[in-house]
């Protein structure tokens, strides 16, 4: 950037702006179509926009406008993908993705769905879309404002329609892959092996529905649904190790009641765990208008705040893991493959044709098919079968993209819970309010399955196992002001002991409990918690798993005695500067490979490529059984010792011969690249963030979750690829004391000073103030801008006669 510098006076606060990015922004057109009244915006040092609107819809207009200003390529790419319009940009390889996404667009009465929301929510949704479109109009008129990707791919952003927020539905959770896997294991008489990779909680034996021919089930049955879950066919696009990402994505969240805090006010903490990327998964904004005052992290293309607080309540979220998708195998008519057997007769699939534009080629005319269960994802006329998928997020009323608006407007526990009725994604919501209440409500679409079907294996589509609609919010568990004085969730199985798990069949697939156990340990031991305590807990690197594994280390021969002593003396904290942590992580990774090789027969490795569940692995090492051989304990110890020796050899090769020089952070580095960085022009325009000097602690099982992908085949399999990039700790009622981080920054534009400005603070765990009151916002502001509505056109005077 050139050295142009310009000082802006803001209420006595001088702000220094530099570079063409800021200059170009200042030159943008002032009149914005869709805005009713002027909106003032104060920006702080992190580029957080504090919006001051005169009406609530205008605040949401600013939300759409600002996120489009900061993240237009991300917004447009997601929009195109959801609407099935990537092939027109990237070519024929994207036709399957476009077909799959069009297949799962909402097909009901979109206008009626929108009209079912309260009028204010409808107005806010329209205003948000108008804000996006207003920014698109600006950058179209002033191409220098367009993010670089649009020039590189010779395109312009798509206009939005408010009904897009109703029609875009795909929220694939991955349950269907597991169903196919279990059916194929059952066909080989090996279904019990599935529990090694996915132990079921509460304890449950999967049921193969009556009439299912498991031997006929193949991966091909997922068809277009597999396309939805697979990485896009563009070189360098993130998701190189999609299985690792899905296995680790989650979050931590806890709420602490006033009786257990130092201030007598509740504390709410939340740190969602998602794949690292440029930009990060959250965009922070503060929306203010009469009747609205809300701040926190949101997502591009979703109006409002996902994790944050308003003037009365704070709210966080983690994944709850409802099983929301089921595969149905249909028997089709040999004489007419569009007819399928259902309820003793034949039904005809509905056929819909859609035209897909393809860059450099003629348009493709594609047929989509639908049954009573849902979209048809695969058809095999030769085998007289087809596959349909039922998904909660396709149901009428499951308008997840608008749920934030009601949440942001809620003022108390009943209003908050009411707003969750339209929240589709499977979510643990944590809650606290200025009256001292705390709570937890599980939310998301919950299928009402037929008897004989637990959702873990595909079912025949003959009508016996069709869903009977969705269960109400009241069917999901909740707690209000728990006697313990706090509530925590980290994606573990948290159904209460008295919950009817077998009859409601919420889920049997959850995350390991190690993060939750550590949080539980700390919260129980902290009778007067402070904000600093929650910040420290979010960055806690003590591994409950590692402490138990190290205790199992057997006697090690003298040549490696020093390394064994290093590990035995370790405190279990997976810090970046720890040599013992580096040794443990490499050892653990090698143990995963070794145990998988011992327990999974070669004939099943195509279905169970690994790894073994960490919970199962720990249990088996504690109590080895006959699967280790005639002398299980001896075989266990031999495996532990051999992998330990291999880990030492690997570390000597990677980090040098002296254990004193080893550092976990030297392996566990953070490097963020543009999703399309494999394209040289993109890599040149978007510099990488982080690199070898960006060392991180943590692992997949510490509260400060920072996972890595040891099976991805990368040059450094220990590089951190995901974890918490947005972190928040709320002092409920004394809001200006709340803290946050949002890595790597607000903007996706490398010309912006907010492209990667959070990196140093994030690496240090240095949480930043989240100003909320008018006084605090004014004190923090370094830049002011005003959005002006477009001027109405003057009537044209009649020409003189």
Automatic annotation (TrEMBL):
For this protein, the record's Pfam families field holds: Penicil_amidase
Comment on bound cofactor = Binds 1 Ca(2+) ion per dimer.
Going by the UniProt record, its keywords in alphabetical order are: Calcium, Hydrolase, Metal-binding, Zymogen
Citing just one GO molecular function, the answer is:
metal ion binding
Which residues of this UniProt protein bind Ca(2+)?
179, 323, 326
The UniProt record lists the keyword Metal-binding? yes
The biological process GO terms on file are: antibiotic biosynthetic process
**Where's the active site on this chain?**
251
Name the domain of life this protein comes from. Answer: Bacteria
Identify the Gene3D superfamilies for this entry.
1.10.1400.10, 2.30.120.10, Glutamine Phosphoribosylpyrophosphate, subunit 1, domain 1, Penicillin Amidohydrolase, domain 1
Give the family per the record: Belongs to the peptidase S45 family.
| Protein's name in the database | Penicillin acylase family protein
- Source organism of this protein record: Gluconacetobacter sacchari
Q: Give the classification, highest ranks.
A: Bacteria, Pseudomonadati, Pseudomonadota, Alphaproteobacteria, Acetobacterales
């Amino acid at each position: 950037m050139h050295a142009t510098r310009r000082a802006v006076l803001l209420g006595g606060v001088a702000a220094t702006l530099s570079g063409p990015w800021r200059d170009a922004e200042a030159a943008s057109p002032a009149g914005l179509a869709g805005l009713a009244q002027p909106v003032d915006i104060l920006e702080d040092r992190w580029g957080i926009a504090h919006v001051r609107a005169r009406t609530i819809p205008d605040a949401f207009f600013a939300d759409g406008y600002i996120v489009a200003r900061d993240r237009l390529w991300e917004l447009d790419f997601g929009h195109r993908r959801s609407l099935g319009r990537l092939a027109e940009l990237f070519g024929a390889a994207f036709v399957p993705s476009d077909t799959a996404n069009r297949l799962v667009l909402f097909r009901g009465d979109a206008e009626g769905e929108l009209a079912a929301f309260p009028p204010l929510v409808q107005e806010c949704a329209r205003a948000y879309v108008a804000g996006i479109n207003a920014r698109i109009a600006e950058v179209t008129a002033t191409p220098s404002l367009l993010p670089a990707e649009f020039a590189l791919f010779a395109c312009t952003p798509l206009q939005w329609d408010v009904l897009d927020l109703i029609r875009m539905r795909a929220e694939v959770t991955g349950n269907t892959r597991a169903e196919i896997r279990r059916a194929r294991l059952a066909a080989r008489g090996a279904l019990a092996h599935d529990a090694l990779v996915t132990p079921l909680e509460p304890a449950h034996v999967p049921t193969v529905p009556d009439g299912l021919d498991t031997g006929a089930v193949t991966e091909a049955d997922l068809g277009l649904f597999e396309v939805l879950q697979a990485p896009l066919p563009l070189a360098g696009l993130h998701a190189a190790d999609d299985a690792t990402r899905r296995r680790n994505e989650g979050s931590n969240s806890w709420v602490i009641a006033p009786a257990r805090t130092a201030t007598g006010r509740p504390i709410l903490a939340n740190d969602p765990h998602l794949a690292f990327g440029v930009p990060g998964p959250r965009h922070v904004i503060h929306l203010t208008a009469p009747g609205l005052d809300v701040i926190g992290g949101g997502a591009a293309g979703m109006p409002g705040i996902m994790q944050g607080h308003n003037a009365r309540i704070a709210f966080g979220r983690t994944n709850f893991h409802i099983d929301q998708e089921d595969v149905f195998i249909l028997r089709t008519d040999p004489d007419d493959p569009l007819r399928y057997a259902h309820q003793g007769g034949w039904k005809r699939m509905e056929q819909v044709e859609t035209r897909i534009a393809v860059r450099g080629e003629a348009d493709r005319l594609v047929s989509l098919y639908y049954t009573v269960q849902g979209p048809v994802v695969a058809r095999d006329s030769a085998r007289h079968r087809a596959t349909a998928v039922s998904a909660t997020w396709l149901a009428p009323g499951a308008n997840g993209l608008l749920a934030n608006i009601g949440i942001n407007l809620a003022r108390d526990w009943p209003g908050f819970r009411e707003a969750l009725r339209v929240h589709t994604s499977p979510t643990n919501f944590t809650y606290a309010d200025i009256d001292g209440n705390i709570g937890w409500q599980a939310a998301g679409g919950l299928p009402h399955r037929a008897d004989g079907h637990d959702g873990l294996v595909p079912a025949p589509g003959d009508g016996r196992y069709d869903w009977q609609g969705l269960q109400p919010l009241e069917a999901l568990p909740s707690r209000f002001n728990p006697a313990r004085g706090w509530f925590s969730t980290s994606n573990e199985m948290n159904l209460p002991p008295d919950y009817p798990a077998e009859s409601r069949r919420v889920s049997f697939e959850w995350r390991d409990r190690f993060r939750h156990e550590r949080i539980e340990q700390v919260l129980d031991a902290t009778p007067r918690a402070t904000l600093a305590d929650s910040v420290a807990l979010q960055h806690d690197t003590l591994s409950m798993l590692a402490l138990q594994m190290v205790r199992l280390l057997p006697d090690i021969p003298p040549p490696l005695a020093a390394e064994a002593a290093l590990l035995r003396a370790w405190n279990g904290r997976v810090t970046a500067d720890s040599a013992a942590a580096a040794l443990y992580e490499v050892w653990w990774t090698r143990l995963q490979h070794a145990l998988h090789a011992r327990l999974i027969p070669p004939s099943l490795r195509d279905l169970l490529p690994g790894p073994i569940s960490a919970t199962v692995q720990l249990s088996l090492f504690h109590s080895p059984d006959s699967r280790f051989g005639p002398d299980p304990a001896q075989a266990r110890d031999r495996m532990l010792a051999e992998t330990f020796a291999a880990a030492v050899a690997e570390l000597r090769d990677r980090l040098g011969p002296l254990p004193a020089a080893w550092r976990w952070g030297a392996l566990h580095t953070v490097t963020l690249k543009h999703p399309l960085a494999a394209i040289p022009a993109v890599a040149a325009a978007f510099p990488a963030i982080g690199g070898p000097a960006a060392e991180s602690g943590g692992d997949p099982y510490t509260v400060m979750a920072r996972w890595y992908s040891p099976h991805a085949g990368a040059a450094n399999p220990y590089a951190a690829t995901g974890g918490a990039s947005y972190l928040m700790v709320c002092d409920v009622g004394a809001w200006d004391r709340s803290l946050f981080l949002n890595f790597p920054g607000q903007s996706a534009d490398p010309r912006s000073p907010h492209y990667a400005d959070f990196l140093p603070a994030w690496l240090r765990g240095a949480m930043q103030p989240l100003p909320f009151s008018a006084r605090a916002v004014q004190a923090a502001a370094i830049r002011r801008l005003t959005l002006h509505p477009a001027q109405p056109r003057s009537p044209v005077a009649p020409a003189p006669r």
